[in-house]
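Chapter review: from sequence to fold.
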Amino acid sequence: MKAIFERRSDVHEYQQTWQMMQTIGKFSMKRMYESLVPVVPTVSWSSLIQHNQARPRAVVCLWLACQDRLATKVRLKRIGILQSEFCSFCNEAPEDFNHLLIDCRICSVVWKNVLQWLQVRHTPCNWLEEITWLTSNTRGKGFMQNMLKLSIAETVYGLWIYRNTNIFDRENVDNTDSVARKIVDMIVQRGWMKPKHRNKLALLML
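The token string follows.
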């Protein structure tokens, strides 16, 4: 009941918006939607998620990684589920997503290989700086901007699947070169869906 009473002012605002549109005789779905959705600040990395050609599951995985919500060993130990937080690949440092993508001497090869295939000269430093770099280099609707967004989403998802397979199904785990090739194949498959990008994508495949 307390929550209901707290929403009375919102209902009054919705009624005012509705009455205003009735007065002018024109209904605006956009204005009604904006009145229903609370105003919240936009995160800096939202452009990496919006209009991303990657598979929905990969985009969701990237969204979780940007918020540091993936169930890494560091996070699982913090909430009392695991006792060891060390990386299951190198066993040299705690496993957070920064370690998986950037620091791990085994996993970090994957993102570097994808960047090399894209012909992008960039040396990853840490995950937060990588988000900033990606955000600044994916503005616009050009070929490389779209490919970078697609590539980071598929790479994050591919690495996460690689990590899970290494923990739960070690008999069937691939090497990093195979993982990188599968990610590149998926990038090509998803990128090919935009006809205007096919010529430049074909040059990368040579």
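Two observations follow directly from the output. The longest helix spans residues 143-168. The mean pLDDT is 91.
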